[in-house]
Amino acid sequence: MSKAIEIENFSYEYPDGTLALCNICLNVEHSQRLALIGPNGAGKSTLLLAMAGFVKGTGKVFIDGLQINKKNFKKIRTLLGSCLENPDDQLFMPTLFDDVAFGPLNMGIEAEKVKKRVTEALKTVGLEGMADKAPHHLSAGQKRAAAIATILSMAPKIITLDEPDGSLDPRNRKNLIKLLAALPQTLIIATCDMNFAATIADRTVLLDEGYIIADDDVKKIMSDSKLMTEHGLEVPTQFKNGNYHNFKS
Q1: How many Cα neighbours within 13 Å face the side chain of 61?
Q2: C-beta of residue 175 within 8 angstroms of C-beta of residue 223
Q3: What is the CA radius of gyration of the chain?
């Protein structure tokens, strides 16, 4: 059986020659919750873009067994959905319905089925009954939920999220954690918030300067104070007081 994500010796340089990712080898199982952690500039966002086929480097990237290339790109876009760091980049239509319907309509799905998908996606993220609302009138938490709905409506098997907890207040952050916990999809989440990562992930990959430094169980990596400090990170509160609980607990 193919894995959700398979990356073989992937490297990528920015146009100015700066190394962004170096010799990345990574496999992600289906239904896994993987947190990408590391300091700013570590390569987390670039790695998510590589998974989505938005940056091209050397090496190979496979999504559910399909190699990312021109031939497979359209199919891969139905398998993997990407939530960007700024939800405003994904919400550009006059109404929330239009935004959530945009993806499946462009996949060629008939209108009645799209309508059903939009209704189900909005219900899943807690925005039921808000289809006619203008996206720019939503709160920060609602925008984040709406951006996730635009992905869910395309029914992907894998979802990547870049700093999904950014700018959220504690209440909306808690709602986001609850939402992500309920999703059946494989999740790959890049975040600088170690407490958030420790709460949602079962596996952690630590990146720094474009290299994978560590890849293991979330508790094993994040409770290693020496490792975390060496790479500019803090041990999450959950591990400082010994009361570790993630969404599966």
Answers
A1: 24
A2: no
A3: 18
Confidence (pTM): 0.91
Q: Which letter does DSSP use for residue 89 in this model?
A: G
- The pLDDT score that the predictor gives to residue 122 is 95
Distance CA 176, CA 234 (A): 22
Instruction: For each of the domains in the chain, give its residue range(s) and CATH number, in order of start.
Output: 5-240 (3.40.50.300)
Positive or negative, the CA dihedral 240, 41, 54, 92 is positive
Count of positions (residues) in the chain? 249
Whether the predicted pLDDT of 249 surpasses 70: no
Please count the other Cβ atoms lying within 10 Å of the Cβ belonging to residue 132: 10
Per-residue pLDDT tens over the stretch 30-88:
999 999 999 999 999 999 999 999 999 999 999 999 999 999 999 999 999 999 999 99
8 Å CB contact between 197 and 247? no
Task: List Cα–Cα distances, 63 to 28, 34, 79, 92, 121, in angstroms.
Answer: 10, 15, 7, 27, 23
> Rounded to the nearest 5°, which phi and psi values hold at 73?
-60, -45
